[in-house]
Amino acid sequence: MIANESHGFYDFFLFAALSFFALLLFIVVNVSQKVQQTPKLRSVAILVLGDVGRSPRMMYHAESFAKLGFDTYLIGYKGSKPILSLTSLSNIRLSYLSESPPLVTRIPFVLAAPIKIMYQIATILYALVYGIPRPPEFIVVQNPPSIPTLALVWLVGGITGSKVIIDWHNLGYSILALKLGKTHLLVNIAKRFEIMFGRSAYAHLFVTNAMRNHLEQEWGLIGHKAVLHDRPPSHFHKCPPLEVHELFIRLGRSISPSLANFLPGASLPYTTQLTEIQGLPPYSASPTSAFSSLSTPTLRKDRPALVVSSTSWTPDEDFGILLEALKLYESRAREANLTNCENSQSKHDSKERQVLPRIWMVITGKGPLKNRYMAEVELLQKNWQYVRCTSLWLEAEDYPLLLGSADLGVSLHSSSSALDLPMKIVDMFGCGLPVCALDFACLPELVKDGINGLVFKNASQLAEHLETLLTSFPSSSALDSLRTNLQRALQVPLSVERRVHNHQHQEGADWEWGSWSENWDRVVKPLVLRDSERFG
Questions:
Q1: Domain shared by 122 and 255, yes or no
Q2: Which residue windows are transmembrane per the record (predicted)?
Q3: What gap in Å lies between CA 321 and CA 460, rounded to an integer?
Q4: Is omega for the bond preceding 493 within 30 degrees of 0, making it cis?
Q5: 355 pLDDT tier (thresholds 50, 70, 90)
Q6: Please, what sign has the CA dihedral across residues 483, 484, 485, 489?
């Protein structure tokens, strides 16, 4: 029986290998034909080796190229739904890579791994060479992952004449080192691979100044180099009460019944857990007509503080810090509110007012550690009075609305390279949402402690920040101050002189914010239009 299974695996592996080489030969033939064509003016292929719908920066790149008049081919894996503003553009083509055959999952890893890699190489080459009518003027590739994408775009760009732009989000080998250790042989091989195929490109884009400086000095990058800080698109905004009301009418029915005794009661469509409409509708009126005749929704004074964190539930984001901080907050809220209640009774105060509010902690995202941590949360919060933590998966269009409805954001991101910045904070700032962020080396490029958020190093500090920002909620002066700074920065256009001033890290430099479009037009647009007139 074992011999038959081994023979079956051998046959399958041989079949997969022959199929790969046949496909590779087919692609090579097409590449030889492409060599005779010059790259098409104003065209770009954007490659992301991941779920396209969960790759916001690459979707924003595609949208910006398309709005500039480029024929844009966005290549990646199918999964979450892409943003609506992307799919509505006529000159964007979504090209989805196919997953490896289901049979691969049934064979041993030592056989499955090379088959998956070969299949991935074949499908990427096919998409870049055969799936596009004519070689694109530019190929933009996201890094990481580095293997095999950097080598493939290097090869295709060298053969067809397409100019390669590497968008450095992080370092691939540093992520691998989290699992295997910095001294592991495979980590060293991955680093050499990344240097070899990532060192030379038409242009290099970086998410931080720290990453640019590091790679420029340590790796000696060749090509144009520019920092393009992450920024959210224009539809990210602070939600007025009407939008909050409409969002929680949609989400209300999906909220766990276990929250019924914690959240304020809701009577849809007139009241939600966070909003209410003053005045009762006449009994004779239909819900639709009654709803339209009532006043605009307002935020409920008895609502909990809505705190949001987005996580990939991976080892580089220690959810344990947040869990411990929530434990501490629960303890402090009980003590503070009990003391306040006793003082109120001694003064014959007829109305009790909580010093620290209840927190509704909403965690968005998917990942491998989600079930483990959420099971732990469920056990803990059975005895909690002031904190509830729930996980929520949102469609792309509802995610910015949740951020725009929240009172505070939390980031647990700790960079594997200490050179990148968390996109989740960028999204929160775009929605006017102050953050508490875990500290690491280049975080000050984004989070200005005490201006647009607060920085913490451990659970105790995070609990203290929650207490500071939420005291006397919803009338919290500390939280209002951070929110005002964010709104002011969002409304003031960037100036070149102040950008230079800030880039030099001089003391007293004002914190600024600009939209994705402003940053992209300033940084990337000159690069992609620089030599385009020589193509036809």
A1: no
A2: 12-32, 103-127
A3: 9
A4: no
A5: confident
A6: positive
Q: Is the Cβ–Cβ distance between 20 and 124 less than 8 Å?
A: no
Mark whether 251 and 176 lie in a shared domain.
Answer: no
SS3 assignment, position 274: coil
Same domain, 211 and 256: no
Domain containing 466 equals 241-279+287-344+351-491
Rounded (10°) CA dihedral 304, 310, 312, 314: -60
Q: Indicate whether 202 and 262 sit together in one domain.
A: no
Query: Residue 230: helix, strand or coil by DSSP?
Result: coil
Token pair for residue 389?
């933590």
- Which contiguous run of DSSP H or E holds residue 361? strand 359-364
> 10 or 319, which is more confident?
319
Residues 26, 34: Cα–Cα separation, whole Å: 13
Is the same domain home to 263 and 173? no
**Residues 24-54 as b or e (16 or more Cβ within 10 Å = b):** eeebeeebeebeeeebbbbbbbbbbbeebbb
Any domain includes 532: no
CA atoms lying within 13 Å on the CB side of residue 156: 33
Within a domain: 401 = yes
pLDDT at 492 over 70: no
pTM for this entry: 0.78
Distance CA 531, CA 526 (A): 9
The Cα–Cα gap between 212 and 203 comes to 12
The number of distinct structural domains making up the chain is 2
Express each pLDDT in 112-134 by its tens digit: 777 788 888 889 998 998 889 89
Mean pLDDT (the chain) is 83
In a domain, 163, yes or no: yes
CATH number of the structural domain spanning residue 173: 3.40.50.2000
pLDDT of 512 reads: 63
Q: Mark out the alpha helices in 298-422 (DSSP H runs).
A: 319-346, 370-380, 399-405
Contact call for residues 130 and 88 (beta carbons, < 8 A) = no
Final residue of a domain: which of 468, 491, 514? 491
- Give a yes or no: residue 139 inside a domain: yes
- Alpha-carbon gap, residue 149 to 124, rounded angstroms: 8
Residue with token string 């690069």: 527
pLDDT at 46: 97
Q: Are residues 298 and 330 in the same domain?
A: yes
Is 164 exposed, middle or buried (CB count within 10 Å of its CB: 0-12, 13-18, 19+)?
buried
Tell me how far CA of residue 277 lies from CA of 246, 250, 288, 296, 305, in angstroms: 12, 16, 14, 6, 19
Closest CA to 329 of 317, 318, 337: 337
Q: Which residue's entry shows tokens 């691979």?
A: 193
Do 249 and 163 lie in a common domain?
no
Give yes or no: residues 177 and 270 share one domain.
no
